[in-house]
Amino acid sequence: MNRAARARRLVLDIGPQLSFANGGGEVLIRREATVASGALMRLHTLTNNIDPDCSSIRRADVRVAREPQHGRLTIVRSVVYPGFSPGNPRAHCNGEGDAGAKVEYRSTPGFQGDDLVEYEIWTFNGGRLWYTAEIHVP
What does the alpha-carbon distance between residue 135 and residue 112 come to, in Å, rounded to a whole number? Predict the structure, then answer.
């Protein structure tokens, strides 16, 4: 990896959600989560990029990069609602649904142990968000 590419690469350990524009760089995001065996868990809700007038800019592309060994990772296209914080010029758009996607995980019923999933989001401006989630199934 050349020096310019390394400068744009960022690694984050996060909680349940992260949203930002990464300007064409690559961001690696690591998560851990716990879910009961066979239960559905939403890992990510992805809204379109939204202009201040609440119109969609473009949809990001979400792809499964690595299937879990002990369950299923699903990308569900659906209507989602943004969650902009108060004071954001787009906060008034929170009540308006738009096309988006949900990334969901469900372990094989009866499985107990750890599983690993990876998915990537290619943003409208060419950036790549690479999510790795270690799933604990007690």
Answer: 10
Q: What is the pLDDT of residues 12-34, one digit of tens each?
A: 444 444 444 445 567 888 889 99
Single-letter amino acid, residue 93:
C
Rounded to two decimals, what is the model's pTM? 0.74
CA distance 74 to 107: 11
Question: CB within 8 A of 3, min separation 6: which ones?
Answer: none
Token match 């350990």: residue? 13
DSSP code string of the chain: --HHHHHH-EEEE-SS------TT-EEEEEEEEE--TT-EEEEEEEEPPB-TTS-B--PPEEEEEE--SSEEEEEEEEEE---PPTTSTTGGGTTS-EEEEEEEEEEPTT--EEEEEEEEEE-TTS-EEEEEEEEEE-
Cβ(32)–Cβ(115) below 8 Å: no
Distance (Å, rounded) from C-alpha 70 to C-alpha 66?
A: 12
